[in-house]
Design brief:
- This protein is of the alpha+beta class.
- It has two domains: 165 residues, Uridine Diphospho-n-acetylenolpyruvylglucosamine Reductase, domain 3 (2-Layer Sandwich); 105 residues, Enolase-like, domain 1.
- The strands form four sheets. Strands 4-5-10-6-7 form a five-stranded antiparallel beta sheet.
- Strand 6 and strand 7 form a beta hairpin.
Amino acid sequence: MVEYPTSLNEALNELNKNKYTIYAGGTDLMVKKRNWVNLPVKNDYSLMFISHLKELNTISESEKLYHIPSCVTQTQMIESEILPDIFKTVVKKMSSPAIRNVATIGGNIVNSSPAGDLLPLLYVYDAVLILKTINGEREIPIENFITGAGKNILKDNEILKEILIPKLRFNNNYYKKVASRKANALSKVAFIMCLNIEGKVVTDFRMAFGAVAPTVIRTRNIEKDYIEKPIDLLKIKSEEIWEKYREFINPINDQRSTANYREKVVKNLIEYYLKEI
């Protein structure tokens, strides 16, 4: 059975009474729950479709935040006149145009895959998630929401309503997705670094990695070691920076790549970007 609520409140009311698998684009769900050819998708619970809910569909902004409702599609993010260019750069490398027309930011988050392409970007930007029930809502930093590969703290009666993105400005951005193809392929490694450099001094330093551990790797304790330092110092400290991150990186062997390859790629990306600034 598929439930089609007409409003967010109706959806939340129904979730409060019965258990559903929520979906919007379904591009991750249909792969995870696929069945034999020509048979319906195999699912443990009834489905609830929410992509059409107007409360979850329009990007907006306030003085300090970008507001991205959970059912905003990848195409909407690319076409947005509000979001920073780095968001569009990341999304354009995610999938085919057809998939981007239906795949949502909320689905990428709730799927909670270590290889979720949007996740390193959201970690670097300190994204906060609004999780809503019929009785209220809670705000959770994204790094506290995802607890492991495919695991998160979303409750059965909650919907991921919105993603809040602080209006940060970086004057140096670098994003690299390593995959079998430029787009429409899962990441072997995803890497993002965002810096602010004033004069020759680093005033903000952020780095995140995807697909190299059960969750995205971002370590603020390492980042703060290189803030208020000359950029020329970072250029010669790439080996040191890599060694600090190395203890957090725990890649696996899978059908896309090997752990050894992923580890070498991360090291090379850190060295390459710092030298190219």
